[in-house]
Write a structure and sequence with these properties.
Helix content: 25-40%
Number of helices: 2
Number of strands: 4
Distance between the termini: 11 Å
Structural class: alpha+beta
CATH architecture: 2-Layer Sandwich
CATH superfamily: Dimeric alpha+beta barrel
Length: about 90
């Protein structure tokens, strides 16, 4: 499992790209790739939890979604996570 931590600015491009991004994440969720995703309560960032075999797979997931290259979106951290409860 991997945790992707994002930070946001109020750039209008980010807000315009968000519906397509959420649709993309919803499709990945239906395939069991994305387990959880959502913005922080203050909308300064978001957290995405993905089930991927390695960092290269996580980076491929990010590369397939243009949201992550949109002004106003920054990937702060990609962290390997090993939960013991599901």
């Amino acid at each position: 499992m991997w945790i992707i931590e994002l930070s946001f600015t109020p750039a209008p491009e980010r807000l315009a790209a968000r519906p397509a991004h959420r649709g993309h994440l919803t499709a990945l969720h239906s395939r069991g790739v994305v387990w959880m995703a959502g913005p922080l309560a203050d909308d300064t960032g978001a957290v995405i939890v993905v089930d991927a075999p390695d960092r290269a797979a996580v980076e491929a997931i990010l590369a397939a979604d243009p949201y992550f290259a949109t002004p106003g979106v920054s990937i702060e951290q990609i962290r390997d996570w090993r939960p013991f409860l599901e």
